[in-house]
Amino acid sequence: LKLFKSRIYTAILLLGCVLVIGVFGYRFMSGYSWVDSLYMTVITITTVGFGEVQPLDEYSKVFTVFLILASVVIVGFAISVITEYILSKNNLEELKQK
Amino acid sequence: LKLFKSRIYTAILLLGCVLVIGVFGYRFMSGYSWVDSLYMTVITITTVGFGEVQPLDEYSKVFTVFLILASVVIVGFAISVITEYILSKNNLEELKQK
Amino acid sequence: LKLFKSRIYTAILLLGCVLVIGVFGYRFMSGYSWVDSLYMTVITITTVGFGEVQPLDEYSKVFTVFLILASVVIVGFAISVITEYILSKNNLEELKQK
Amino acid sequence: LKLFKSRIYTAILLLGCVLVIGVFGYRFMSGYSWVDSLYMTVITITTVGFGEVQPLDEYSKVFTVFLILASVVIVGFAISVITEYILSKNNLEELKQK
Ligand SMILES: [K+]
Ligand SMILES: [K+]
Question: Do A64 and D90 touch (CB under 8 A)?
Fold first, then answer.
């Protein structure tokens, strides 16, 4: 159980890193304001994707591609860990019932 | 089983709250019409994200960020509860087969 | 097993209905071309959401809200059925191993 | 376990194929630059969907519809395989505990 919790914390920490990298990336690479950088990062990571706040240059597009891929991999990892956690909790309850 | 159902109802109720908060937020904060507010809230919560119906000011963007994060957390909670429900129903059937 | 398959077929059939309703809705309600209607329906149901092909009037927005909600409910139902199917298949294999 | 790993590799390989087909499709069918083609393909497959980089003609829209449907089916297959993998790993641990 401790193992799962530390892995869930790892996933949350990684997502936090991606959020911070995203905000700083859009702030200094694409010249967005702080609010726009946060807004752009959140709509990118959560795949809401309303649209680019301001048009992106080539470097910002490549940056966005890596941001999306990183968040997809981390969210996938987080879902796997949570699924395994629910399953193992379920098994423990099952064993207790016997 | 009753525990799961009450938690699923909690998740649905919370989603309903987010929907209502979203509609009122866009109606009075961003000056959208009622239909546009509903449309904007639904495309935000479901991550369809066609694009902002009308450009958002800074406050509305921060509001949108919180709306997205709230709905992501609630949807994640709902999926967890439903997964646990399916698993425990599955275990009961398994026990009956023995 | 037959029960699961019939429910998966129900989910696929319902998704097909939503697709057809979406295409006809955008074709005759919003005046889109056939290709644009298909394109709009697919990016709506899959939550890709590039943006409205042409601006939508109030009725088309309400129609889109219902289309999104219907597809979210049906996709959720489909995922539940598939999860239950994988779980029960898994249980059968487990029982065989004993 | 080997069976699962080969199926996960199949899913990753198929996703890679869709990525390559997408990039070449947007490059030569819609006349996008290489960076724009990669950007467009990634925001399409991950359903971020910021919006079309440049307006698409009818053929490119039909191409996009197939790209979206292919990636949805493959991602669905990948999630199924990963779920089955986690479940069978879980069962093995359960058997060991007995
Ligand atoms: K969009
Ligand atoms: K989207």
Answer: no
